[in-house]
Amino acid sequence: MTATTDTTAAARGDEADLATKNTRVDVDADAAAEGPLAGVVVADFTRVLAGPYCTMLLADMGATVIKVEGPGGDDTRQWVPPHRDGVSTYYMAVNRNKQSVMLDLKNPDDLQTAVELLDAADVFVENFKPGGLEQFGLDADSVARRWPRLVHASITGFGTAGGRSMPGYDLLVQGLSGFMSVTGEPDGHPQRAGVAMFDVVTGLHTAVGILGALRERDISGRGQHLELDLLSSALSGLVNQTTGYVACGNVPQRLGNDHPSLYPYGPFPAADRDLIICVGNDRQFTRLVQRLGLHELAEDPRFTTMEARNHHRDQLRPLIVEALSRATADEWFEALQAEGVPCSPILAIDEGVEFADSLGLNPVAQAGEGAQAVPTIRHPVQYSRTPAQYTKQPPKLGADGEAVKHWLARRRDDHRGETQGSGA
């Protein structure tokens, strides 16, 4: 199946105008794009979460990201509920600021379009199964030979050696990395996280790797191949837990909401609901117990150091719980915050977004313009001079196909003219 365009625009009879506009404003990396990555072209052959999250971050920073989808589209387009006006919010979460072109790589014409896109690209990101791109001549070795300046990032679930045949689902990684073994109540079952966290961590790692490779290319003039896998990102993301094992043989166990090295650090019941208390040092502990009216505990040798508190959790916890029972979680939140004791109530997602807004963090960004704009969660970095852009809503499948093809055709014509000029 060949690349498609927006059928609504075609029905109005202004397809050519739409293509020209999109070529000038959206597709052309040499246009008046803004952001730290303005002018960088990213060929995005990823789907689901890790890859699309990475490429959305790059797009937010001004890169021209062209999302290549097969005839069925990104899997997450069908992942509902929830949805907004029939569009999966899972898909919407990681695909703003991109152009969508639909290509069937088994079709020779579409494969040629994909090749021309890589001719134009600075970065190629894909999460095909290991070996899946060889049949199209787009495997790492072929890409390196044909496009030596291209930064090529490959994302897999478990690498390209012993784990090459294993599907890259985040839940499998949560289980196999050890994450679930340390998540949940001590006497309960291992527990998954409430989000596909290692897809997200891998997406972040991929973005960091791409930025590093682009910086190195500025010096060497050469691209390189980056290999990332969810399991390696998970082991890195487990930080102190995995390092505790490799450095000293410690195998952590589930502690529920407790921390293996800090106490008190977790939720404690107040009069109406739980309050999270995070004591990271002895000074904070002193302020906590003084505000709770437990002044004597600051001098009790069982509790004066973090190590001592960890050894005497069972004696300390009931004393804190009894004191907290005298007021509500919100009342303690206000009182303890005023004393410099890190704490918080436990909020629902809607409350969390509203709380961030109350702090002036402006968590919601409208992607696109006018009636087509959709609310999304803003880019996590605030730049003082080159702020993130939210110029385009998550695209419909193949909506920018004609615009992309016009852009590639113009590049061919320009290149042909340059070649003829140099020969004259």
Structure characterization notes:
With 424 residues, the chain is α/β, with parallel strands linked by helices. The chain folds into two domains: 7-237 and 364-423, Crotonobetainyl-coa:carnitine coa-transferase, domain 1 (Rossmann fold), CATH 3.40.50; 265-345, formyl-coa transferase, domain 3 (2-Layer Sandwich), CATH 3.30.1540.10. The chain has 16 helices and 13 strands. It has helices at 7-11, 15-27, 50-60, 89-92, 108-120, 140-146, 170-176, 197-220, 230-237, 239-248, 282-291, 306-311, 313-324, 329-338, 349-358, 401-423, and strands at residues 41-45, 64-69, 83-84, 87-88, 98-102, 123-126, 151-156, 225-229, 265-269, 274-278, 343-345, 364-367, 374-377. The strands form four sheets. The protein has a six-stranded parallel beta sheet, with helices on both faces. The chain has a three-stranded antiparallel beta sheet with strand order 9-10-11, covered by helices on one side. The protein has a two-stranded antiparallel ribbon with strand order 3-4. Helix 3 packs across helix 8 and helix 8 packs across helix 9 (230-237). The longest helix is centred in the middle third of the chain and has 24 residues, at 197-220. The two termini are 40 Å apart. Residues 1-25 have low confidence and may be disordered.
